[in-house]
Amino acid sequence: MALRITASRPDPAVLTLPWDTPLEEWPDDLVVPLPRGLSRHVVRIVRLGSRVYAVKETQGDIAFREYRMLRDLQRMGMPAVVPQGVVTGREGADGTELPAALITRHLQFSLPYRSLFSRGATAEDVPLLIDAMVVLLVRLHLAGFYWGDVSLSNVLFRRNAGEFAAYLVDAETGELHEAVGDRLREYDITVGCENIFAELMDLSASGAVHQPIDGFAIIDHLRERYEALWGELTGLEEFSTDEMWRIERRVERLNDLGFDVDELDIVTDLGGDTIRIQPKVVDLGHHAREVQALTGMAVEENQARRILNDLAAFTAHHDLGREDRQLVASRWMHQIFEPIMAMIPPDATGKLEPAEIFHEILEHRWYLSEQAGHEVDIHDTARDYIDRFLTRRPDEAITGQE
What we know:
With 402 residues, the chain is α+β, with helices and mostly antiparallel strands. The chain is built from 11 helices and 13 strands. The chain has helices at 60-75, 113-117, 126-142, 182-205, 215-234, 245-256, 286-295, 301-317, 325-342, 354-372, 378-388; strands at residues 4-7, 43-48, 51-58, 83-88, 100-105, 110-111, 145-146, 155-160, 163-168, 175-176, 237-240, 259-268, 274-284. The longest helix has 24 residues, at 182-205. The chain is globular and about 75 Å long.
């Protein structure tokens, strides 16, 4: 049987992997000791040059289906791991047929939920993980994606200015529809509640969390947050023509949540006295897109909020309100952000993402200023934070370009 590799932007180094050996027997010098979530499949994370991949053994038809599903989600801009390829036709040295393999790119600075708790997360952080799961699930449902196996184990988390952002890592059971109806949405929520409750109880039983976790309160939180966010993003709002300001207010509320409104359905009654509005197309990333336009940095949504707030404070402090925002942002990058990032020792660059480091420095400045009774200089704060806290953190990424 001939080895066959179907790949998106193929990396020639993939051919050098020991495909004639079962994944669980791949040598330690090839496998990167990164945290992995629980999985019913054998998964290994490998480095090839400057790139890092996750390799999962599965059946050939399932591998191709998931590969195509992840590619569709990538084209739609959904938060999911990026597929790299599928390997079929594997045979062992003795001629034994081996499972197919799905290759995805490793998501930099991401961790499975269990690893977060080995790196300092506590029971108090669980609602934040659930909030990230809710945002992910709502975004997928809005895009027409029915998940079928909602769980913490099928997600990777990235830090997001004191909160988290969730990324889909397993699309094996997913389906794309024109729209996800109420029945399928309810099924996803129900399955998610069951799986997450079991995962949290197992996490508590393992001793990874020292404080008790109220599993019933957490799944109630999941349902409530989902319904609230879904209602805000899709709900129908009706008002009279003398309340036209409510159209702008609805858009502002969605912007405050981090969503842009790409399409809004506005309908008037026959007499023109009543107006109904309903968002039709919304997309998370309102603040992140603004930061990218101003600075060129790709950051998570909450990180973008912190950066924009600091940029606004910088603008006010230097009386730059009449200047072009692009020029102000460039000055802020040159005087604030870049010098702070240059302070980080090379062996600490894999601790956190730059935008998350900046967020923590802003938090640290607040505490130092409270203690000092006056605002502490941001650069002095950065030196103190890097020396006292950052260098002691465990790495959360493999350094190098992805």
